[in-house]
Amino acid sequence: MKLNCLIEGESDVFVVPVGPEDVVSDLKKSIQSERVLGSLKDIDPHTLALWKPKNLNLIAAKPRNALVEHIGFLGDELSKFADELEAVDSVFSIFSTQPLRDYIHIIVKVPRTSE
Questions:
Q1: Buried-most residue among 13, 62, 99, 108 (CB within 10 A)?
Q2: What predicted TM-score, i.e. pTM, was given to this entire model?
Q3: Number of structural domains, the chain?
Q4: Residue 87 located in a structural domain
Q5: Name one Pfam family in it (predicted).
Q6: Which domain holds residue 13?
Q7: Is residue 114 part of a domain?
Q8: How far apart are CA 74 and CA 80, in angstroms?
Q9: In the prediction, which pLDDT does 71 show?
Q10: Of 64, 61, 50, 57, which Cα lies nearest the Cα of 18?
Q11: Is 115 contained in some domain?
Q12: Would residue 89 count as lying in a domain?
């Protein structure tokens, strides 16, 4: 299965493959390794918060220049339009079939770093 992921505040969608036995903590590691040279450099995977848009709040993956604005329009609190995933949840229990290809499946919230 392949999941379209988006880091909150960014507009580049990226695809992460997951296996049938994977749990959310495995997905976090895959996401971090996919973006290790970019915005997730020096970020521990376990600190990422993963959110799945609720079924009534499908977010189109295109056009990419409208993603940040669209998510911002939905509100500041992800919990209003998405469900936070627990590290031990099975990916298969969240997505029992391949989700629709042209939508965002996972929103990644990166912890704020103190400088």
A1: 108
A2: 0.86
A3: 1
A4: yes
A5: Crinkler
A6: 2-109
A7: no
A8: 8
A9: 67
A10: 50
A11: no
A12: yes
